[in-house]
Amino acid sequence: MPGTLYLVATPIGNWEDITFRAIRVLKEVDLVVYEERKEGSRLLRHYGIEKPVDSLNEHNEAAATHVIIEKLTRGKSVAVVSDAGTPAFADPGQLLVRKAIAAGILVVPIPGASSLMPALIVSGFPVDEFVFQGFLSPKRSRRIAELQQLKREPRTIVLMDAPYRLVQLLRDIADVLGSARRICIAFDLTLPTEQIFYGTAPELYQRFFKEERKGEFVLLLEGLSK
To answer: Where in the chain is the domain with CATH 3.30.950.10?
Structure first.
């Protein structure tokens, strides 16, 4: 019998944001697969878990997927975790999930911490419908073109990016949309430094440009008024 592939959500910052079920699964599986060695080791060490480990990230995804599928078909149980939050969501792992499904391997999600829902519910924007746009292009010309395509989107838009690109992202949103849309930035969610910022793109661009603040964030953009 093949083993089971568990997709285990882990904290996005606050160590208390993990479920009892996630801890149990991490203790019971044969292998834990993490994204980066440093973060994965720190996670297991914090909860006192000692397990064989492997890595799956954007640099080795194809090769690592092949190895993990082989282990699963031999009956080993595997838990996949990302650096933070829910694996295979805006993170490597989707290829592994597709291959596991094709091989008839049971895939079990272990829900938990995510930055998406907390950011949505504090934004004050409509959440009955929203668009997860995720990461825009790191190249400015292409990023501006992508923002141009979103100008007429009536639903709330969710964007993410690397901490060091927040100012550039706000600058480009300001250039494309001006002050026409409200923005919410959920900054350092679950951490002691957590803050929620509201305003327009020009306002928040000026603020973050002056403060040079860096941290993990989710940016929510108000949809076009109907």
So the answer is: 116-221
